[in-house]
């Protein structure tokens, strides 16, 4: 399963795992998630790897960057609805300024 974690407070997306929908080179879930991830990475000037995970951070904090992340997450949610066994989305939610963030998991 691919796990997509995003943090709106930091405008960051982290992807890890494997879809395991089909064999390598034939996995449409992996291809769809990869297309969105690499599009977002290209916009932000690349990505880093952290313990095998792809981490993409916005180049700046502004409403346009937040909206771009929203669009990418929207695409991931559409994939997750069709393939819930292959993609899990985790959202980091800030409730109030200064409070600790909590994790909310979506199997949409």
Bin the helical content: 25-40%
And the CATH topology? Alpha-Beta Plaits
**Architecture, CATH level 2?**
2-Layer Sandwich
Level-1 CATH class name: Alpha Beta
Major beta sheet, strand line-up = 3-4-2-1-5-6
Beta strand %: 25-35%
Tell me the major beta sheet.
6 strands, mixed
Uncertain runs: 99-104
Radius of gyration: 14 Å
Molecular shape? globular
Q: What's the N-to-C terminus distance?
A: 14 Å
**So how many helices?**
2
Q: Give the beta-strand count.
A: 6
Assign the structural class, choosing from mainly alpha, mainly beta, alpha/beta, alpha+beta, or little secondary structure: alpha+beta
Mean pLDDT: 88
Notes on the structure:
33% of the residues lie in helices and 30% in strands. The protein is an alpha+beta fold and 108 residues long. The chain has one domain (2-106): Cysteine protease Prp (Alpha-Beta Plaits). The longest helix is centred in the last third of the chain and has 20 residues, at 63-82.
Please describe the structure with a list of short key phrases separated by commas or semicolons.
Alpha-Beta Plaits; single chain; globular; alpha+beta; 108 residues; six-stranded mixed beta sheet
Task: Map the helices and strands.
Blueprint: E1 2-7, E2 12-17, H1 28-43, E3 48-50, E4 53-57, H2 63-82, E5 87-93, E6 102-106
Parallel strand pairs: 1-5
Antiparallel strand pairs: 1-2, 2-4, 3-4, 5-6
């Amino acid at each position: 399963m691919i796990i997509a974690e995003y943090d709106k407070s930091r405008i960051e997306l982290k992807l890890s795992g494997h879809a395991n929908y089909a064999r390598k080179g034939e996995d449409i879930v992996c291809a769809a998630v990869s297309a969105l991830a690499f599009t977002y990475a290209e916009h932000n000037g690349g990505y880093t790897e952290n313990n095998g995970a792809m981490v993409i951070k916005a180049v700046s904090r502004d409403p346009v960057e937040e909206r771009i992340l929203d669009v990418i997450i929207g695409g991931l949610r559409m994939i997750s609805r069709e393939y819930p066994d292959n993609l899990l989305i985790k959202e980091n939610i800030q409730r109030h300024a200064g409070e600790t963030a909590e994790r909310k998991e979506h199997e949409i």
